[in-house]
Amino acid sequence: MKKILIMLSFFVLFVSCEKLEDLNKNIKDPASVPGETLFTNAQRRVMNQMVSSNVNLNIFRLITQYWTETTYTDESNYDLTTRTIPDNVWDLFYINALKNFDESAKIIAITPLGTSSQATQSNKLAIIEIMEVYCYDALVETFGNVPYSEALDISKPLPKYDDGETVFKALLVRLDAAIGKLDQGSESFGGADNMYGGDVSLWAKFANSLKLRMALVLADKDDAIAKAAVEAAAPNVFSSNADNAKIVYLSAMPNTNPIYVDLIASGRHDFVAASTIVDKMNSLNDPRRPFFFTEKSGAYVGGISGSSNDFLSYSHVADLIQTPSFPGTLFDYAEVEFLLAEAVERGYTVGGTATGHYNNAITASIEDWGGTAFDAAGYLANPDVAYATAAGTWKEKIGIQSWIAYYNRGFEAWIQFRKLDYPQLIAPPDALSPLPMRLTYPIEEQTLNGDNWKAASAAIGGDAVDTKLFYDKF
What we know:
Blueprint: H1 2-23, H2 35-51, H3 60-63, E1 67-69, H4 85-110, H5 118-143, H6 164-181, H7 200-217, H8 223-233, E2 245-247, H9 258-265, E3 271-273, H10 275-283, H11 289-292, E4 328-331, H12 333-345, H13 354-369, H14 373-380, H15 394-405, H16 410-420, H17 443-448, H18 450-460
Antiparallel strand pairs: 1-3, 2-4
């Protein structure tokens, strides 16, 4: 009996140990993540950042005075620090996007091809490279000098900051190399690519359109490099709205449009249309107003930027934009045509006329929002809109109309505003800072990477919101 009890006890102990060992196994999380999954996640995070209206992440619609706030007006008055907005933007691009893209590339590069081909693998790596360039470009155009050469090196927890202009030119070289590696006759990410479904020909157009935009950002600083890059890219950029870089969100959480999450699902009434853009569009009888705003008593009425605006007294964000599945846009044909109009005015050889590209841009914007070619023709017939008769220099004409067209794309509007100096936005009376020309460096960088932060701040002329970056000197 004693022997039986001893053996029984041993059996129970053996079984118990096996169960405890099983408890230490993670049966829910995968031991490794496919590179394609990391790419999908990073791509989604980038799009969400650019689309978001969350005041902790993206206040560019407020900076460019498309929207303004109601009860809480800190962000409309350019308070960038209370919510540590620069820290959040920095972390999104470095941690959630670039690190995931980097790991995705490493995994894909060593994953056995299986039924895939070398060309497909090469396309995937080139597309990742294009998205990395997009992210670094956004960081440079937001902050100035940023970590680049040591940014993703885990052995360098306190990376140095690289010169913004040097990084920018290196990115153009990387972009050229990535474009050269794309095989448009082969596949890539397929369904893991939520923007283009793996269509390599569209990625080639996206990359060339990005090259066009980046080159023109550099135009006032280094005309020779800008001209060469623009002229090389121009024949291969977007040619219609069918090329637009969009993600169509789903109708159910958690993959809905971030604006739906911010404004509808959260039950917030924080934003109204800003009078800056509403008044301009009213003066031009712009046909996009119903797609941008709701009416108030039969009219479009904007609130004053930076003021405490009563939510019920002004036009709101249009219902269309707040639907769960409303697409997010990273880049579009209208922007490409405005850039080509600018290129013509700068004397670059890109084909066509400034008038033609300007008209194409406005027409593309109106049609993409839901208007018609007839609407666009009527709008372009307005002497205050027509390129030949609209007021001001080419910078003012293109600057005003691109600002209108980039509604709901606040970051791109901010880039264009700083480059062309139009529209001539005025900071609200109670603004806590001048109109931002950049975001200040994150507080965490100041405290954890202080020496490199000090060097970068000195190099760009001071860590202030009104410090103009290397490309914005004229």
